[in-house]
Amino acid sequence: MIKFSPLLAVLLSTTAWAQEAPRPDAAAGPDSDIVVVTATRAATPIDRVAASVTVLDKAAIDRNQDFGVADLLLRTPGVTLSRNGGYGTNTSLRIRGAEPDQTVVVIDGVKLNDPSSAGGGYNFANLLVGDAARIEVLRGPQSILWGSQAIGGVVNIVTPLGERDLESSFDVEAGSRQTVSGRAAIGGRTGPLAWRVGAQAFSTQGMSALAPTFGGRDTDGYSNQSVQGRAMLDITSGVSADVRGYYSRGRTELDSTSADTRDYSLNREFVGYAGLNIDLFDARLRNRFAYGYTDTDRDNYNPARARAQSFDAAGRNERLEYQGGFAIAAGWNATFGVENERSRFRSVSPLASLATPVPAPAQGRAEITGVYAELNATLFDGLTLTGGVRNDDHNRFGSQTLFAGGAVWALPTGTVLRANYAEAFKAPTLYQLFSEFGNQALNPEEAKGWEAGAEQRLLGGVLAFGATYFERRTTNQIIYNTCPARPTEPLCFQPGSNTRRAGYYQNVARAFARGVEAVAHAQVGTRLTLDGNYSWTESEDRSPGATNGLWLPRRPRHAANASITYTLPHGYALGVAARWAGDSFDNAANTTRLESYTLVDLRAELPVTHQVKLFARVENLFDEEYQTTYRYGTLGRSLYAGFRGRF
């Protein structure tokens, strides 16, 4: 008792009891731009977060004027992108050189992934900006709070709730290649109910997905319609109910890597969430009980075939979760929870001939239960330590325990020092386990990473600059292994039979990544704003064999972004943004080089009234020809203009 009496005194003191725990909700609306939600799954000041985070608020989203979330994220440190053509084609986002399917994507607190895709990750192709009020990018391994897949990092997209009796917004624009986009949202707050609903429609004639250099001539169009909404009802003091939903439907015209085709794909995504929030002990203990559901359907068609449908896949996720937040004392907050996720998938590729029956689809199910806890503790003014542990139990490969720890020290001089260590894992996907190429003996991919950095703010934040160094090692990485024409290896045959197969998945790959991310911001007077970042990311294959030491595909080692915005009297604004990406390779053997490129964009805003603005932009001003994926085209010079209103 003598040992523990100081701790008991803290826990039972009036001061400690007066503290409120942060709300355990990754869709919470932050009150200011100094709050980060993603990092701790609860609203936390950025100077108490040990990991590297970039936050894009509504002003930044509007200022950049991008259609898709992926294009916004590409302007942030450590992020690279590859795309198989124009809008709507397969879009792979990589954070700090990790695989595209090693990033967790969250919309309003609901974790997204597609269990029917080979890597189980999220395709950013159909994710438009929509009604997003805030986008956060958390870099580095983050499985303690976010579970499987969070090896590269986490992207959290937050939509708003109504704050006034009635509010609305709209954006309408049109431009090159018969591109048209319209978005509208309406919401409000009446007594105990806050709500908001938004919708967006986008269409473009597009360009050839196959690069013209390789014979691409036709145009491959894309269209997308989406709707999303949130509502929160205060039932009684400290008790509220919360529902959220998102639906998207996209149609994309496709090309092969060698010729124009008439193929097209349909993609449908649905996200649903229902939660109950209960605050106890004057909000010192906050509890959230929730059910989340994601449903993705993908279909490919080729009208030239007798049987037009060439691919059919569906993936489902159901999540039950409890998350708690406890205010131990001033500056001491614990986050803890339990999650149960059940996934299932179905996938089949029908042959073209109507005389050949459609084969039985590949199917599979998996269940994973995770328990986690993290402590965020400010020892004294400016110094905060974070520590966490997680255990996941998978019904196929057993238990996995992970650890993380970090520190952030905000000094009175405006200097912020950060250091962080974290572990992560990625469970084998259902496709990797149960498809025609599946291997049920797979183990989870594992990663360990650390980072250290410093930021300096001067003149009250008018000038800020900083840099972070990171390393990450990944083992047991799963790759697809192609079988020879005359195989002898047992895994080249369907399990329990003599039927040959084209290949299989196995745990053989290793990867190592390290790099530096540097950022700078300057506000010159009240009119001139300068922003820039530079990323050096060395992401290498460390697998035994011929590829050891080679660059991992489609990951430029050098990338930089810069922007200048000048605001004239009466709110007129002019801006220029530039992105440079260095050389990369398209294949693991490093024999196909993708050349470096520089893109320059111009943008302008002209206020009509206090609530309505005209805007215009030119993308790829100098009509640069480049590729992010070999043989696939990219958008040339493009001009867009429109107007937006905020009421």
Looking at this protein, list some descriptive labels.
647 residues, mainly beta, Maltoporin, Chain A, 22-stranded antiparallel beta barrel, 5-stranded mixed β-sheet, 6 helices, 5% helix, globular, disordered N terminus
List the helices and strands and how they pair.
Layout: H1 5-12, H2 14-18, E1 35-36, E2 44-45, E3 52-57, H3 58-64, H4 69-73, E4 79-83, E5 91-95, E6 103-107, E7 110-112, E8 134-139, H5 143-146, E9 153-158, E10 167-175, E11 179-190, E12 193-207, E13 220-236, E14 239-255, E15 260-280, E16 285-301, E17 309-329, E18 332-348, E19 362-380, E20 383-394, E21 398-410, E22 415-426, H6 430-434, E23 445-458, E24 463-482, E25 503-524, E26 528-541, E27 558-567, E28 573-581, E29 584-585, E30 593-594, E31 597-607, E32 612-619, E33 638-646
Parallel strand pairs: 6-9
Antiparallel strand pairs: 1-2, 3-8, 4-5, 6-7, 8-9, 10-11, 10-33, 11-12, 12-13, 13-14, 14-15, 15-16, 16-17, 17-18, 18-19, 19-20, 20-21, 21-22, 22-23, 23-24, 24-25, 25-26, 26-27, 27-28, 28-31, 29-30, 31-32, 32-33
